[in-house]
Structure formats: structure tokens, C-alpha cells
Amino acid sequence: MIESPAFPVMPARFERTRRLRRSPAMRRFVRETTPRPDDFVYPLFITEEANTRREITSMPGQFQISLDHLPEELADLGSLGIGAVLLFGLPNTKDPTASAAHDPAGIIQRAVAEIKRLAPDMLVITDVCACEYTDHGHCGILVGDTVDNDRTLPLLARIATSHADAGADIVAPSDMMDGRVGVIREALDRAGHEMVPVMSYAAKFASGFYGPFREAACSTPAFGDRRTHQMDPANRREAAREIAIDLAEGADMIIVKPALAYLDVIREAREAIDVPLLAYNVSGEYAMVKAAARLGWIDERRVALETLTAIKRAGADRIITYHAKDAARWLADPDE
User: 72 lies in which domain range?
Assistant: First the structure.
């Protein structure tokens, strides 16, 4: 056979990998990783204001909601097959010591009780931190302009215990104080909540992707930043150390946050640990997709599902994501 530039002589044997991509049905049949609605945890911002459903400007499609809007929210989540929520509270009053965070009649405590009443099977995870409840916006007790690690630990233990008292299924400390997992575990056990797991934000980076969240949770620091306790984005090995420390202190589950820019950390964590691993697809990651889609630059559905697939492919067992409801609808109606 004479070889021509247009039709080169083919080798006698070569791999036709395209056989497995030739149709939508074939691609679905061999697909290795597919997110499911029950992979998702949906964040909710609960405000103490009454009769409120306020869209978050920097997070289109996300809302600050009051307790009276929980029934419709839970019905929507249930219909989509989403079985877990992560709660953030927006109190009416704030003070230097975050006293509203552990108030038995506080907004999160009431929200937990209401969700368990309305939807007993909904898994309720509570964020344990002080930043939404302090008038200075920092994650703990200040001494001068510095968050005092050890003075903050008893506060975090009180917050976590109050959430468990209200009926929370899981408590999730996000403050990044040293030693907080052990202190929270001990406090929960002493209070009779030995069966309430601790889901630790073990690898939480000081990320620029958190901007929209600070609007949503009304938690922008009055001064300074959180780089003394959240991790340097440049450090991969340190994340492994933080995860190992939290597991040794009694964490039952681990969160890596953010997700998309830290897929390498998720992958390494998955290979190193056997406990459930979650990734937080954070507000900035969500907002970028929304903004680009509104400008017509990307296909939101395709990019969001690709992102969630990548996070799961990297090794996350569950994904905390603001795209949860949209993604559940898209997955129920595949486009190919």
C-alpha cells in the first residue's frame, strides 16, 4: 500500500478508545464518576429576622432565610433527594464574646429544633465558629487585636454542646483554633452527646474565594484577617499534618475547604485516611460560575457539573455546595 499524507498506513493493531465514546448511552454506560443528589450538603443561612427571604447579591440564587421559610426549603430539598444541610446563623445581636452563639434560644438552636420537627430524616450539620456572632467579626475571643486560641476553646465547646442539645446530628468546627477538636469532643461526651460526630474543617485555607460568604453570613472582620489561624494556600504538606492532628483529637469526618483550587489536597487526603472526607465548594467558586454564565461566557450546567464531578473524582465522599439544588435537578434530567 502506498502511503499518502491524507491516508497514512495504519498499524496492524491500535487501540480504538473512541469506541467507548461514540454515543451518549455508551458514555453513560462507562462513566467512572457521577455525582448524585445524596452526595450533596446544602448550606443554609438562617436569619433571626421574621418573614425574610433575602437574595445574597454576590451569590445569585442563594438566600438568607428566616425560620418561617424553612418548611418550603426542606420540602424542596427533600423532593430533590438532598438529605443534608449545613447551618449558618445570622443573629440579631452580636457582642465581643459571641454569647448568642451558645444561647439555647439562639437562631441556630431554634433552626435545628425546627428542622428536626419538620423533617426528622434530614441530616443537620451545624457550623461551629464565633465569627457570625462577634461584633468584631473574628473567630474567637480577642486579646488586643489577636484571636486568643486558648481562651476561645471553651467558647467553641459551649457552642458545639448547645447545638447538640438542640438536636444537631453533626457539629462542624470551622474556626481553625489549635486543640478545638479535642476540647469539643470532651465537652460533647461530658454532656451525654457521645454519639454526635465531629466533622472538622481540618484543612481550611486562608482563601480569596470566601468573599461572597462573608456577605452571606455577615461575618467580615472589622479589621485584619484570618491568616494566623487559617492555612497558607501554598502549603500542601501542612494540610496532611492538620488532618492527622484532628483525627488524633477525635474528629470523625474531615473537610477540605475550598475545593476546586485544592483538588491535590483532597486526593492526598483520600489516599491517607479512611474516614469520610468532604470538600467545600465555596462561595467564590459558585459566584464565578454564576457570573460567567450570566455574561454568556460559559454553560453553567456543564461547568457546575464538571466541577462537582472533578471534586468527587479527586476523592471527596460528600460535597458541600451551593449548586446542590440545581445540580440535583440537572442530574435528574441528563442532557445526553
Answer: 34-332
88 to each of 176, 225, 257, how far by Cα in Å?
Answer: 16, 20, 16
Has residue 320 been placed in a domain?
yes
* Known active-site residue 257: yes
- Residue 213: per-residue pLDDT: 80
Give me the number of domains the chain comprises: 1
Interval 89-100: pLDDT, tens = 999 998 888 899
pLDDT digits (tens, 9 = 90+) for 140-153: 888 888 888 999 99
For residue 28, being part of any structural domain is answered with no
- Whether 85 contacts 41, CB under 8 Å: yes
The three cell numbers locating residue 240: 496532611
Residue type, 218: C
The CATH number linked to 303 is 3.20.20.70
Instruction: Tell me if 27 is assigned to some domain.
Output: no
94, 116, 204, 325: the catalytic one is 204
pLDDT bin (cut points 50, 70, 90) of residue 3 is low
Q: What percent of the chain lies above the pLDDT cut of 90?
A: 77
Given the residues 257, 290, 312, 325, select the one marked as catalytic. Answer: 257
The reported pTM is 0.93
204 is catalytic: yes
Q: Which helix (H) or strand (E) holds 239?
A: helix 237-249
